[in-house]
Specification:
Chain lengths: 278, 360
């Protein structure tokens, strides 16, 4: 199908102008990251001038205890959030797409709300909620705050996967003697697993990335990596930040490659929905 | 023995199945035949346990199944859509029921391999269902159900998605497999040919009830209503106006002062008109007129539909009806059969014992 499209003379994307625009677009997207990586090897203290090649900022970074505690917090939050919102989001998806209740239309809309509501509104409202209940701000409050929006993303990804699930498989499994739990465990779960995995990765990424909501709901001793970088910038941009950012980029590329690998591996069942959502 | 008593299922106010009584014997190949929407699928789903009847009971060897959920019934289903588990290999699909009932690994492997052999799929155990043809998927579904040695196997239009040639082959195979293993098969279909070729007994269903139950020859040769006769095979219907009983036969009157003799019984307590039904192969064309114990009407040949081995002649009877007549184009003896031409005037003849009288 796509082969035919490439072979006719009308195919878009061959002209000189189109090429220039494409290259310009890619340049715009990637040049800041390339500059960032180059300057992480800068021997000078200031990012504005090149002082020769050096790995010293990587050494500084590795020796920075506060930075490591921020990374540790970020990972604790991201993993806890991924686990919590994957379980709750999957349950929500199962309930909403497999049964019809009164108000199920309303539930669907409510589930979409955290995606639409501006971060800042949600951040302020969560903060007010925690204060109202006298909830100590810290790792737990951040995890709960992250879960409050991640659940929606997970639920949507899993629901997309469930939409392609043939309900007759369930009847077939019951017919062969499986009870409700066995049907879930042996038929439904393996078929929606790629969706669940994609949802978990999405929740994990959203959590690592989040600044606004974390900023409002964090407390003493639960600083995350984005907050730490922000506070470092207040004292001037040093190449140490470039070094941290470079490692984050490398980590992200590795993660995306891993997802692609799982997608292509037939054992996981093919199409994960990560690509379409992020 | 499976017994359905007064089985009823309502969808809203609409009765999909109403007050259905049926007994299926052990090791029988039983067929529920009917047009779509006649309630045959609903009946099957109630036997499997996917639907709860609104009234009536289902008894398997005397035990009431009403309170037993689908997964605890000793009944397995072959689904029309195959419903193979896409994440499991052929082997694991077939082994599914055995793993649920926690059989020993050696037993599972023995029984699955025996099934693969039975459905002629040995060598395919490692394949994923998505990489099988329709016919192969069909066999896996069959094996997946049979491996559990159910008391009854339900088959929901299993051959509907196959092409004509493969369907014919699977019909023969299904009959052979059923005879080989002796499990009761309840097969539902809207294809009368499938029912006639495979079933020991057929129940013809319409609008939620059973019209007639009998062997394939009963249903084909002695249908009890115009609906059954029309649904099974080809049948010419001629509306009668009056029937006069004589000692040896009945005299059947048609519109236009025509009449003929028939030894067929007159249907009792009917409402509405009585039709005389006769199949195309029971009629013959003749230039010389009827023999003894034959009826004969003058007629005019409208056209011939050529099928190779035979032709269907569409013929208009004098003063009335158009009928179809099957005419063999070749005789086994090698002699050439009489040939007829379109537009010719001939006699249409049939034995007085042939055909049947049907209530509307």
């Amino acid at each position: 199908m796509s082969d035919l499209g490439h072979q006719n003379d009308l195919a878009f994307g061959r002209g000189f102008t189109v090429r220039i625009i494409t290259i310009g677009g890619l340049f715009f997207l990637y040049i800041p990251i390339i500059i960032l990586i180059i300057f992480s090897f800068n021997a000078s203290r200031f990012s504005s001038q090149w002082g020769g090649f050096s790995l010293k900022w990587y050494v500084t970074m590795i020796q920075d205890g506060a930075l490591w505690s921020a990374i540790r917090n970020t990972l604790i939050i991201a993993i806890s959030n991924a686990v919590l919102s994957t379980i709750l989001g999957t349950l929500a998806a199962l309930a909403l797409s497999r049964h019809r209740y009164r108000f199920s239309g309303l539930y669907h809309k409510v589930l979409h709300m955290p995606i639409i509501i501006p971060d800042i509104v949600q951040a302020v409202s969560l903060l007010m909620l925690f204060v109202f209940f006298n909830f100590t701000l810290g790792l737990v409050s951040v995890i709960l705050a992250h879960a409050s929006f991640s659940i929606s993303f997970v639920a949507l990804v899993v629901m997309a996967r469930l939409a392609g699930f043939d309900n007759r498989l369930e009847e077939a499994a019951m017919d062969l003697g499986a009870n409700r739990w066995q049907v879930f465990q042996k038929v439904i779960l393996p078929n929606i697993f790629p969706g669940i995995l994609a949802g978990a990765l999405l929740a994990f990424t959203l959590s690592i990335d989040d600044f606004v909501i974390t900023f409002f709901t964090t407390g003493v001793g639960s600083t995350t990596l984005p907050l730490k970088i922000y506070s470092m910038i207040k004292f001037g941009i040093t190449p140490e930040i470039n070094a941290i950012s470079t490692l984050l980029v490398v980590f992200s590329i590795a993660a995306v490659s891993a997802i692609h690998f799982f997608e292509k591996n037939p054992k996981t069942g093919g199409k994960a929905h990560v690509k379409n959502i992020t | 023995m499976l017994e359905l008593r007064g089985l009823t299922k309502l969808y809203g106010d609409f009765p999909a199945v109403k007050d259905l009584d049926l007994v299926v014997q052990d090791s029988e190949f039983f067929c529920l035949l009917g047009p779509s929407g006649c309630g045959k699928t609903t009946t099957l789903r109630m036997i499997a346990g996917f639907e709860q009847p609104d009234a009536g009971e289902i008894l398997l060897n005397g035990n009431n199944l009403s309170r037993i959920p689908a997964h605890k019934r000793d009944i397995n289903t072959v689904f029309q859509s195959y419903a193979l588990f896409p994440h499991l290999s052929v082997f694991e699909n077939i082994a599914f029921g055995l793993r649920i009932s926690k059989r020993h690994e050696d037993e599972i492997s023995d029984r699955v391999n025996a099934m693969l052999k039975l459905v002629a799929l040995d060598g395919f155990e490692g394949r994923m269902p998505g990489r099988l043809s329709g016919g192969q998927q069909q066999r896996v579904t069959l094996a997946r159900a049979l491996v559990n040695e159910p008391k009854i196997l339900l088959l929901d239009e299993p051959l509907a998605a196959l092409d004509a040639k493969l369907r014919l082959q699977m019909q023969v195979e299904l009959s052979n497999i059923q005879r080989q293993i002796g499990i009761t098969f309840i097969f539902i279909t809207h294809n009368q040919e499938e029912a006639l070729t495979m079933a020991d007994r057929i129940a013809v269903m319409d609008q939620g009830h059973i019209c007639q139950i009998g062997g394939p020859d009963d249903i084909y040769l002695r249908p009890n209503s115009k609906f059954v006769a029309d649904f099974i095979g080809q049948m010419n219907f001629i509306k009668t106006s009056k029937i006069v009983s004589h000692t040896e036969s009945n005299e059947i009157f048609l519109a236009g002062e025509r009449s003929f003799l028939s030894t067929q019984p007159i249907p009792e307590n009917h409402r509405g008109d009585i039709f005389f039904g006769i199949r195309p192969e029971q009629l013959r064309m003749s230039r010389s007129g009827p023999l003894t114990r034959e009826n004969g009407f003058r007629a005019h040949i409208l056209n011939e539909i050529y099928y190779g081995d035979s032709s269907i002649f569409v013929v208009e009877l004098e003063k009335g009806e158009t009928v179809s007549i099957m005419h063999q184009n070749y005789m086994p003896s090698g002699s050439n059969p009489e040939s007829f031409l379109e537009g010719e005037d001939i006699f249409v003849c049939w034995g007085i014992q042939a055909g049947c009288l049907l209530p509307e």
